[in-house]
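Researcher: Structure for this, please.
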Amino acid sequence: MKKLLNLILLIFLFIGSPYSSISQTEYDEMLQEYYKNTVPQIHPKTLYAKMLKGEKIHLLDTRKKVEFEVSTLKGAMHVGFVNYKKSKISHIPKGEMIVVYCTIGARSESIGEKIQKAGYKKVYNLYGGIIEWVNKGYPLYKNGTETKNVHVYSKEWGKWLKKGNAVY
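Model: Predicted structure, token format:
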């Protein structure tokens, strides 16, 4: 038994975990299965550059409250998914930029559609969600302090996380 465990350990050391071989292309293909492409996408690199420039951006987290409480993009407001109400964003001027996000971008795309129907014009969905954000090396926060923890919704989604600590 000990020899078998050592063999498994050696395999992991030399070739990595089964998930380490998941490529960006595979992630992109998986996302396309979930996206309807009804809300324009913004890639993490573009969003982060805009944030660094100090551009006015309203970040809306559409995940469950328990997910939001683990970590979030800096300055994001929780609007939820199941309990989303357009009154939560009524204070945002309709001409200002809004970026919605969730774990991979599917739930946020649905909320983005609702926001567009409410008359907002500059609505974007964060491509790849919080997983892509972290995988590209951008920071997450919990109560104003940087964290490596990422609520990945489920083990199915967690396999796509390459950086950070998966929380379920």
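Researcher: Any notable elements?
Model: Confidence is low (pLDDT under 50) at residues 4-20. The chain has one domain: 22-167.
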